[in-house]
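User: Could you check the structure of this?
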Amino acid sequence: MGRRRAVLMAATTVVLTAGGALAASADWTSSAHVGACEFGICGTVVNGLDIPVDIALDWCEWESAPCESKGVRTLPADSRSDATDKIDVDGFRVPDGLRYQVYFTHTFSNETAWLDPGWHKISTDTVARIAAYQPGPVVGDAQ
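Assistant: Sure, the predicted structure tokens are below.
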């Protein structure tokens, strides 16, 4: 009931700004989706690039962005988020100005996509391997 109460309390703090946009108080982060491994499976990011990327250990659905409660970590070039510990990554951010080829491996499927720069959410059962980048906008599916 404590988590449900936190969600309800957070919902009551949502207000409309003068411009009509939704705003929420800092209490909303208490109802954030805190990432955790499930049955030994963790969301994982593999950075196969020669540049660093950011990873988020928490994801705030309300803001469609990482939560500030656990912060953001930098994943160096040619490294994995699970290299030293079993941690669940909930999202990753790739730098501006490029498009990125990412191989997603899920429990029951695989896919390849070219992604725009910015934050991208992943599930607990997902390994996202960032494999390549090119300048320019995303055009069409991954080859």
